Each structure stands twice: as C-alpha cells, then as structure tokens.
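Course exercise 7: structure representation. Students receive a sequence record and must write out the corresponding structure in token form. The form below is the worked example handed out in class, using Membrane protein (271 residues). Read each field label carefully; the graders check that inputs and outputs are placed in the correct fields and that the protein name is recorded exactly as given.

STUDENT ID: A-19
EXERCISE PROTEIN: Membrane protein
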Amino acid sequence: MTSAGGFPSALGGQVRLHHAAALVLALFFVFWPLAALTQTFPPLTGRVVDTADLLKPEERAALESKLKAHEDKTSDQVVVATVRSLEGTSVEDYANRLFRTWQLGQKKNNNGILLLVAPNERKVRIEVGYGLEGALTDALSKVIITTAIAPQFQKGNFAGGIEAGTDAILSILTGDAEQWQRRAELREDQTSSMDTIITFLIIAFIVFQVYRAIRGAGRPGAYRRRRSSGPWIIPTGGGWSGGGGWSGGSGGGGFSGGGGSSGGGGASGSW
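STUDENT ANSWER:
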C-alpha cells in the first residue's frame, strides 16, 4: 500500500540512486587499472628523449655526448626525458613505470637514473635505480630539483634547468657531492626548525584554549559563551611540506636500457 506523500516511491528512488552510485564506483575500480596498463610511453631512442621539444638540436647533442661519456666511464646510465603529458597519472608513478619500461641501468647493478620533465603539469622527477640510492639519496635529489632545476624552469629556461640538474647528478655520481650534501643538510635544518615552531604554536594554542575554558567555567553564562564561541581550529602546518614533488622497451639507434629497475627512490618537485 502506498502511504500519503508517496513515501515508498521516494524510498525506491533512493535505493536506485544508491545502486547507480555503487555501479559507477565499481566501474571506476575496474577501468582505472586498465587505463594504467594501456598507457603508452615514448620509445627509448637515446640518452635524451625530448618528446616535449624543450631543447634545441645542439643542446640535445651536447647533453647526449655528456651522458654517453659518463656511461662509458662508469656504466651508470643517466637518461633525460621530457613528455608532453603525464596522461592523468602522478609524476612519481609515471617516472617509475617509464624507468621500468626502459629498464635503465645495468641489470646486475641497477645503476640507472631518469630525469623526467613534464612541462604541461609543471612537474619534474629524479628517479633513482636501486644501486645508486646510496649515492644519490632522496634528500640530494630534492635539493637538486629545488636549487638547480626549478629556479631555471621558473624563468622559462628549460635547457638551463635540465643542464644544471644533469651536471649536479653527474657530479654526485663521480664523488663530488660535498656542496650538494651541505645544501641538503641546510634544508633539513630549516625544515626541522620550522617543524619545531609549528609544534610549539599548536601546543601554545591548546594550552590557551584550556586556560580560557577553565577561567570561564565558573562564571555566569559561561556555558552560553562557550556554545557561541565557535569551534576550535588547530593549525596543522599544512602550508609546509618536506618532500618531493613505465617492463622492457627499447628504442632505435642502437641504444637501450641494460635491464635495471627502480623501487621509487628519488624526489619530485614543481615550479
């Protein structure tokens, strides 16, 4: 029997709405992994894969020569890639899967490094192979991005930023990491100091609110004032952050990866 106001009809509409929402959610979880599997990556045609056309031919050639000389001397495989789009994924996910697709570095050493630039999303990533994580740490990678690469990118100087980042990476890999280590330590000290200040402010705010509550508890009308004073808002320091921020293909031209892999070491940034 249908009651006044059409209550069963309204209830049925809500049930159908919930079913539709559940179906949409299920389809999302089915097709999102499929989209990731069908993602396409540029072929590995050399040590510089500039699909976003950020570099002039002579700049690409000079960078290619520099990276080849380093690989011939050390076997470390450093590759620079620019892409027009991250295709809806994070720069961390895209870089890691591109690294694995290209298999950068030697298989037994996992000594590959990928410098990825995505100008449309204004993202940059240094992805480090397992074997080089001890030399090019996450902290050093972050410092390279924030102090060498991003400042040039902010000026629109992509070639200068890529060159500065590459030079810093090669410098660290050849054992000249002292100046970059100092920058990393300075950045950690600054971050630690800021965290201490934020923690102090949060504690002071809580103590102040508790003090106000205790003082006002015995006063006439205190209950009404507390109810009308609004919610407490504790700052979380969300304006500060510490961090950051493709299996087997090869390209033409006689160049390919050596079978290396990465577990996600490195750092990301934006400009």
